[in-house]
Amino acid sequence: MLRIHFTVADATKVRVAVLGPLAELQLSLHRLRRPGHQGWFDRWRAPTVAGARTLSPDVGELARFLTPAAGLVDLFTLVGPVDDYADAVDRLCRAPAGPLRDEFSFAPVVAGVRAGWIGDFAHGDRAARSRLVRALDDYHGLAIEPYWPRIRALLDNERAARIDVMGTHGLDAMLAGMAPTLRWKAPVLEVPGYVGVNRAGAGKVTEVHLDGRGLVLAPSVFSDTDPGLFEPLNDDPAVLLYPIGLDPAAALRLWRRDGESGERALAGLLGGTRAAALRVIADGCTTSELAQRIGISPGGASQHATVLREAGLVVSHRHRNTVRHTLTGLGAGLLNAP
């Protein structure tokens, strides 16, 4: 657990910010290498993994070095919130030498990741800078750029919602509304799932005092299920990255490719048989009727209905010897997603 201690001054310096495409790029590397249990990312991950095989080896080296779990080269505080990807990369290339070297020397020490030519970038090597920029550009074009307008819209909506609550009801209400991801016990903000770099904080309580620096709350699509705290080496505010929740309908809209039909996108998200089951259940049906209409065994139909129910898309009611399935609001929203 992480416990973040606020002073009165810190409470006046809390803001919500979208860090931008370079931050999401770095966080997406973690999703790419460690998919985790959230299946809503599979629609992004599968084509990205396939496309990454065609990119230069430099992209793979960069992924190993920048993946957050590998020891945390902290691009977030080096670059700050930047809306435009090219501007963010330019800021990275113009970052002061001292902080740049400090950050880029952290991963090899903590995680045993060899810096190689990437470390040369931190020491001002022009050839290494060109390789770094080219690798970032290649991966950005594959994994982030095609989805960025929709990712940005999600992040902007999350930011606006938090700011609205804070402006209307105050900081206490805004932080309290972020449960269970965060727990606000004034003047301490608790992060229950915090494990720290290389899980060094797992099973421990880590105390952090802001001491008047303030805190930036940064929502992220690609952030892991547990928030992470990033503390600049100077007196700038600490940055707390937290994941925004993706429901199935949001995931369908987010990863849908241009020109892709809604039916095909739904099948890509759930699988063809399960998508067909969802469409049949929209009219209400028993398990036997579901099996007949999609051409599978009753046992298979029951399994698909169970998965959809556990995802919150379907509700099932037993009456004597039959089980009847209907859509939840979430399931209907997914089926009717534009």
List the keywords:
single chain, alpha/beta, Arc Repressor Mutant, subunit A, 2 domains, four-stranded mixed beta sheet
Rough outline: globular
Q: Number of DSSP strands? A: 11
As for the number of domains, it is 2
Q: Residue ranges: pLDDT <50 for 5 or more in a row? A: none
Order of helices and strands: EHEHHHHHHHHHHHEEEEEEHHHEHHEEH
Span from first to last CA? 40 Å
SS content category:
alpha/beta
Domain HTH arsR-type: 264-336
GO molecular function, one term: DNA binding
InterPro entries: ArsR-like_HTH, HTH_ArsR_DNA-bd_dom, Metal_resp_trans_reg, WH-like_DNA-bd_sf, WH_DNA-bd_sf
Keywords: DNA-binding, Transcription, Transcription regulation
Explain what you see.
The protein is of the alpha/beta class and 338 residues long. It has 2 domains: 2-243, no CATH class; 249-335, Arc Repressor Mutant, subunit A, CATH 1.10.10. The chain contains 18 helices and 11 strands. The strands form 3 sheets. It has a 4-stranded mixed β-sheet with strand order 3-4-1-5. The chain has a 4-stranded mixed β-sheet with strand order 2-6-8-7. Strands 9-11-10 form a 3-stranded antiparallel β-sheet. A hairpin with a 2-residue loop joins strand 3 and strand 4.
